Amino acid sequence: MEEMRQGFIIGTHNKRGMTSRSPWDGGEQERDLAAHYRSHAEKLYVAQPNVANLLDKIARSYEHD
């Protein structure tokens, strides 16, 4: 089961593809993605807590980036 969760997280990150930009552009794209996944996670915490935790983990990884 853990392999499937990890595969979902990796697949979600990989579907974005490669990005490049100036070093001074900041992380606005990553903050937007984190907010997107966190918003979906918040809506699912009651009905689908496992999926919500995965989405929250993805949001945290984008915040870290």
Question: What does it look like?
Answer:
The chain is mostly helical and about 60 residues long. It has a domain of about 45 residues. The protein contains 3 helices and no strands. The longest helix is centred in the middle third of the chain and has 17 residues. The radius of gyration is 13 Å and the shape is globular. The mean pLDDT is about 90.
Name the helix and strand elements from N-terminus to C-terminus, one letter apiece. Answer: HHH
Work out the helix count.
3
**Integer-rounded radius of gyration:** 13 Å
> Largest sheet at a glance?
none
Rounded mean pLDDT is: 92
Low-confidence stretches: none
What would you call the structural class? mainly alpha
Using DSSP, what is the number of strands? 0
| First-last Cα distance | 26 Å
Give the overall form. Answer: globular
Q: How large is the share of residues in beta strands?
A: under 5%
Descriptive tags:
65 residues; mainly alpha; 3 helices; 0% strand; globular
Give the secondary structure arrangement, pairings included:
Blueprint (H helix, E strand, L loop, with lengths): L1 H13 L13 H17 L4 H16 L1
Helix pairs in contact: 1-3, 2-3
What's a quick, concise take on this entry?
This protein is 71% helix and 0% strand.
